[in-house]
Write a structure and sequence with these properties.
Layout lengths: L22 E3 L5 E3 L20 H4 L4 H17 L22 H12 L7 H34 L11 H9 L1 H39 L10 H15 L9 H24 L16 H17 L7 H5 L11 H30 L8 H9 L5 H38 L5 H21 L7 H7 L1 H16 L6 H29 L12
Antiparallel strand pairs: 1-2
Helix pairs in contact: 3-8, 3-11, 4-9, 4-11, 4-16, 5-6, 5-16, 6-7, 6-13, 6-14, 7-13, 7-14, 8-11, 8-12, 8-13, 9-15, 9-17, 13-14, 15-17, 16-17
Pfam families: Aa_trans (PF01490)
GO molecular function: symporter activity
Membrane topology: Multi-pass membrane protein
Length: about 525
Amino acid sequence: MEERPETELISIPATPRGVSTPEIQTPTGQRSPRPASKEAKSSTAWTPTSFISPRFLSPIGTPMKRVLINMKSYLEEVGHLTKLNPQDAWLPITESRNGNAHYAAFHNLNAGVGFQALVLPVAFAFLGWSWGILSLTIAYCWQLYTLWVLVQLHEAVPGKRYNRYVELAQAAFGERLGVWLALFPTVYLSAGTATALILIGGETMKLFFQIVCGPLCTSNPLSTVEWYLVFTSLCIVLSQLPNLNSIAGLSLVGAVTAITYSTMVWVLSVSQPRPPTISYEPISLPSSTAAVFSVLNALGIVAFAFRGHNLALEIQATMPSTFKHPAHVPMWRGAKVAYFFIALCLFPVAIGGFWAYGNLMPSGGILNALYAFHIHDIPRGLLAMAFLLVVFNCLSSFQIYSMPVFDSFEAGYTSRTNRPCSIWVRSGFRVFYGFVSFFIGVALPFLSSLAGLLGGLTLPVTFAYPCFMWVLIKKPTKYSFNWYFNWILGWLGIAFSLAFSIGGVWSMVNSGLKLKFFKPN
């Protein structure tokens, strides 16, 4: 095929079923298909092949009919003209488009379950049984709907794939406003979560070492900061995998370990005798103002448990897409499987943890409670296994949450140099990012105690912005149920974001309500 200018609109010919779509050789040797993309349309909508119907073909002779049928297959495969951006083949998120429903399930599960699930019983200690279960159920259903919205909006405009959350926000809110609204929360959910994972992972490695070694290795143990450095070094080594599809195996490891340790901690907790002074009444506070703010902070913790929407479009961007086989089909299939398992992790941890410890739940969550109340009742091997699984999950989660940051670094480099990153430049970016995250974690060791506050600040990414973007891009009939439903959900999300953020700030000001995942010795 002859070369064409970058800005020219070209159509990609159909390929026989089972044959891969046209590809571009990437800097890392991956084969990156460059398929056309199109949002699947309903059967009643007009398509380029609408006129080729059985009634139209019936009076036509066999040779002409064969030509028209072949043309129909071609048009269904191509669907529309697609503008190809060569830079996409150089960036980690879009470098490889060989993803499938299995990869989508692994990535969504790895991004959706993590250390934030372990502190859900803390929220129940302030909310009680009824409000705790109700808020967790509503949040789960709400975020599942907004995930479906993002999956559908990935190819909302013919010939355009929104491969990143900020790109979709710019299409909905405008170039400048979209960046202002979406950049901070998505950057925190990527870079901030990665920093928090270094803190959690390093501290968990230290506890694992103490459990396994016991009194034999206490002569000159590593400090907490040194454990942070060990964990960061492991993260940097794993981060050398080139693109999002290449870490599918790590995401599978992260998904399996998350399911395993979530199940282990609640099963071990409910299998042990409950503390004699346990109570299921919400924690009493000295004033009604304190009670209101503590409830808001607890709801922020529930909101923080549902993260990963900032990665939904990026995960879908790794899949090939044509008019006949749009990417949203395997993406949604994988997401449904992932969120089924996410529910099996979050609800038992929250309910089982609160049943086992009630309002005696430490502010660090169920893993800290298990360590504090049953250190002598549970075999050391089981405790060590639980901590080791947490470490593996943090290592895997670091990779998927850091990938958008790597993509931004390389996008800036390729746009200035008009060439792909070499292996050394790419490795340099990732080493730099890993150690910057390490130094931030050392300088701000209380970052992991901001779950309620940061759950409120980043809540719009999951609960509000997708609803607004659906109305602004899809443009449903004004004053219809769909129009009212999305506007109401969007503004409720903004209101909850403000309220939960205020509750998070209040909880940080009051030292007795600070949330800490682990307390280093």
